Amino acid sequence: MAQIPPIEDTYIDDIIKTQGVYNPNLNKTQGIKLRELVKLLRDRLEQEAAGLSDGKVDKQTGYQLSQENYSPEEKSKLGGLREHFRGYYVTVAALTAAVSTGTVGDYAFVDQGAAADAQLYIWDSNDNKWVLSSAGGSIAEATEQNPGIIALATIAQALARTDDERAMTALKTISLILDEKKLVSYQIAPVSLNEVSILMENAGQVNSALIAGASNLKLKAGLSGIYPSGNQVYPFAYVAGDRVFMTYNYDDLNNASCNIKLKCKDN
Question: In this structure, are strands 214-221 and 243-250 parallel, antiparallel, or unpaired?
Fold first, then answer.
């Protein structure tokens, strides 16, 4: 397509002939206003084109217009992986026969069939032979000291809590922890008309308390503990085996009964 030259004012004036000045009372197209309109459209298009030019991305050979192109270093690494892969073989002998001499970084897989796991072999440049990449050519099993692969426990194994060699999923782990937290037992003993004690099995703290039928609830730990002189302050800490004593004032002495709910959290 031939290059279109710039549209100059003189060219527009030469195409649209007009004489005189604009008459707003004349109800027909007037050349002077038509010239003005054409020049405004030209200037507007030139502005739009300039804006597009400022924001465009130049096309480069070998690249698409995106940020997903590989850097030369990344392409080199990927090329190296493909270059060093020597393929799949049924036996080590078949691998050795096909690739009798390798280079540093060469690797291949030996898979003897459905009954055997594929094993990773790497080229040992010191001994000039193919060797297993690790013990047995597979990833080691995980231990408490070393990372690796570990089998997952079944639900029954997880609930039995007797298998220390299989791992639980995060969901099973959280579920068991929450279930364990629910297994809380307390022994409540009346001390007097307006005092009781609770034997705490685990260490923890009382974060808040609800009371109905009474008021002025106060706590102390142990017989030798001292009730606060003012309002009870929370959290109230206790250790495993503590007797937590509670005292309170009944709202109605003729009906000496109340309900107390302690909101506790074990450590």
Answer: antiparallel
138/121 Cα distance (integer angstroms): 10
Prior bond to 228 cis, omega within 30?
no
Q: How many helices (H) and strands (E) are present in the chain, helices listed first? A: 6, 11
Task: Collapse the DSSP code of 152 into the 3-class scheme (helix H, G, I; strand E, B; otherwise coil) and give the result.
Answer: strand
Q: Are 248 and 242 in contact (CB under 8 A)?
A: no
Given a contact cutoff of 8 angstroms between Cβ atoms, the answer to whether 150 and 167 are in contact is yes
Close Cβ partners of 261 (under 8 Å, ≥ 6 residues apart): 209, 210, 211
Mean pLDDT of 28-46: 80
Taking a C-beta distance cutoff of 8 angstroms, is the pair 262, 209 a contact? yes
Query: What is the per-residue pLDDT across 97-128, written as a single tens digit (0 to 9) for each?
Result: 999 888 888 888 888 888 778 888 888 888 88
Residues 111/90, Cβ–Cβ less than 8 Å: yes
Cα–Cα distance for residue pair 211/263, rounded to 1 Å: 11
Q: Are 232 and 209 in contact (CB under 8 A)?
A: yes
pLDDT band at 233 (very low <50, low <70, confident <90, very high): very high
Structure tokens that stand for 200 in this block: 């705490």
For residues 250 and 15, the model is more confident at: 250
pLDDT, tens digit (0-9, with 9 covering 90-100), for 208-231 = 999 999 999 999 999 999 999 999
| Whether pTM exceeds 0.70 | no
Task: Return phi, psi of residue 198, to 5°.
Answer: -125, 135
Kindly state the tokens that stand for 122. 């790497």
